[in-house]
Design a protein that fits this description.
The protein has 275 residues and is of the alpha/beta class. It has a single domain, classed as Rossmann fold (3-Layer(aba) Sandwich). Helix content is 32%, strand content 16%. It is built from ten helices and eight strands. The protein has an eight-stranded mixed sheet, sandwiched between helices. Helix 4 crosses helix 10. The protein is globular and about 55 Å long. The N and C termini lie far apart (37 Å).
């Protein structure tokens, strides 16, 4: 791939970086990233990946824009209320960068369709808002060998980690499965500081870019947490669990399974809530 003069100017601040250069920008334009959820986390991730010139970006979301989304889901505008989130997000991404091909999937990810979607992409960003989806993405990426970024936000806190299937700790190494029904409040009940979506979503985008560029250290075998009230980050080392039901020495999960769990939270050892 040879960059045009216009592309060289557009990506000039990337190209002058020693770790990127022309070859790195060409690599970005050839890369493919999938964002599951065009909500709080998916919004900044989608905008920055499009601006960076990631050549193909997929957006999976079956919801419509609601007024309560606008406090944190910055890819959607007031005029978008009632529109499909995937289409609304794609419109903004294409407006930022016509170099980028945006594919939309207006559907819920399920055990019977997720493999066909993620197989086309190099890296997956999990921006979902419920436990079943998060564990489904974790398991599907493991079976497909797809690296992905897990994240969640709630109230004033956020967390993120990157998983390299078969190489680093997966989500089930930390949390065996979803908590019992009604054990934790929903995001709409607990609330979330809108800007947290930007902080954590941008970190997820950075992971996708680092992976595509093959530069730096990914957030593997570590859980990065952020306390918005204190303004502090904490990187907690984690290890692969030899007893993990998915990636352990004697796995009991050998096919994709779906579980019913209506809500999510970042309470205690809970996992995540995003949109």
């Amino acid at each position: 791939m040879t960059l045009t003069d216009t592309q060289i100017e557009r990506y000039s601040r990337h190209i002058i970086l020693e770790q990127i250069g022309l070859a790195g920008q060409e690599r970005l334009l050839s890369s493919k990233a999938l964002i599951v959820g065009a909500g709080g986390l998916g919004s900044p991730a989608a905008l920055y990946l499009a601006a960076a010139g990631v050549g193909t970006i997929g957006i999976v979301d079956n919801d419509s824009v609601e007024i309560s989304n606008l406090q944190r889901q910055i890819i959607h505008h007031t005029a978008d209320i009632g529109r499909d989130k995937a289409l609304s997000a794609a419109e903004k991404m294409r407006a930022i960068n016509t170099d980028v091909q945006v594919r939309t999937y207006k559907q819920y990810l399920r055990a019977d369709n997720i493999d066909n979607i993620i197989r086309e992409y190099d890296f997956v960003i999990d921006g979902t808002d419920n436990f079943p989806s998060k564990f489904l993405i974790n398991d599907a990426c493991y079976f497909a060998g797809k690296p992905y970024s897990h994240a969640g936000i709630l109230r004033f806190s956020g967390q993120t980690m990157t998983v390299l299937p078969g190489q680093s700790a997966c989500l089930r190494c930390l949390f065996d499965g979803p908590p019992p029904p009604n054990a934790v409040p929903s995001c709409s009940q607990a609330g979330v500081l809108g800007v947290l979506a930007g902080v954590i979503g941008c970190l997820q985008a950075a992971e996708a870019l680092k992976f595509a560029l093959q530069q730096g250290e990914l957030l593997t075998n570590a859980l990065l947490t952020y306390d918005g009230l204190q303004g502090t980050f904490r990187k907690v080392p984690i290890r692969r669990n030899p007893h993990c039901r998915l990636c352990g020495e004697s796995p009991s999960i050998t096919t994709l399974e779906e579980v019913e769990q209506p809500v999510c939270d970042l309470k205690g050892k809970g996992s995540c809530c995003t949109t």
